[in-house]
Write a structure and sequence with these properties.
The chain has about 150 residues and is of the alpha/beta class. The longest helix is centred in the first third of the chain and has 18 residues, at about 10-25. The chain has one helix spanning about 10-25, and strands spanning about 45, 55, 65-70, 70-75, 80-85, 95, 120-125, 130-135, 145-150. The chain has a 5-stranded mixed beta sheet with strand order 1-4-9-8-6, with no helix packed on it. A 4-stranded mixed beta sheet has the order 3-2-5-7, with no helix packed on it. It binds copper (II) ion (CU). Copper (II) ion binds near residues 65, 93, 137, 139 and 145.
C-alpha cells in the first residue's frame, strides 16, 4: 500500500485537490447532492438584509460557465435575482427550471421561468412557497452549470 509512504503534506494536498475538484465540477454523485448542491453547500440568505443575487456568466463572483452562489437558501416570499456578466445574457445561458432533461424535477410549481432572451441579462423571481427548486443553464448544465434555490 503506497499510502503508508506518503507524508502528511502530500496527503493533505490530495484531499484539498479532490475537494476543489468536487465543488468546481458539481459532482452529483456526492451523497445527498441534488443538481450539484449538497446540503453543506447551501448559503443561507434568509436574513432580511441578505443578498439574494445569483450571478452567472462572470457576474457577482460566478465563473463564465457557472452560478454564484450556486446553492442558496431563502425564505418563502423572498425573491432571487439572476444577474449576468457584462457580455452575458439568457441567450448565452438559457435558464430553465428543473434538472437536465427533467424540467419538472424538484418541488411542484417551480417559479423559475424558462428564460432564453438574448436581450435580457437580469431576472427577478419570487418564491411564494417552501420547496426545493432546481435550475439549470440549458447550454452548460452538462458541464455543471446547475443549482438549487431552497425555500424554507
Ligand atoms: Cu451557461
Amino acid at each position: 500500500m503506497r499510502v503508508r509512504f506518503m507524508d502528511i503534506r502530500s496527503t493533505l494536498a490530495t484531499v484539498v485537490v479532490l475537494a476543489a475538484a468536487t465543488s468546481s465540477c458539481g459532482d452529483d454523485t456526492e451523497p445527498g447532492s441534488f443538481n450539484a448542491c449538497a446540503t453543506a453547500q447551501f448559503v443561507d440568505r434568509t436574513a432580511a438584509g441578505a443578498s439574494r443575487t445569483i450571478g452567472y456568466g462572470g457576474a457577482a463572483g460566478s465563473t463564465l460557465f457557472g452560478y454564484s452562489p450556486q446553492c442558496i437558501t431563502i425564505a418563502a416570499g423572498q425573491t432571487v435575482t439572476f444577474t449576468g456578466g457584462a457580455s452575458s445574457s439568457f441567450g448565452l445561458h438559457p435558464l430553465s427550471p428543473g434538472v437536465l432533461d427533467s424540467p419538472r424535477a424538484g418541488s411542484a410549481n417551480n417559479p423559475i421561468p424558462r428564460t432564453t432572451d438574448g436581450n435580457t441579462r437580469d431576472l427577478t423571481v419570487t418564491f411564494p412557497t417552501a420547496g426545493t427548486f432546481p435550475y439549470i443553464c440549458e447550454a452548460h448544465a452538462a458541464g455543471g452549470m446547475t443549482g438549487v434555490v431552497q425555500v424554507r
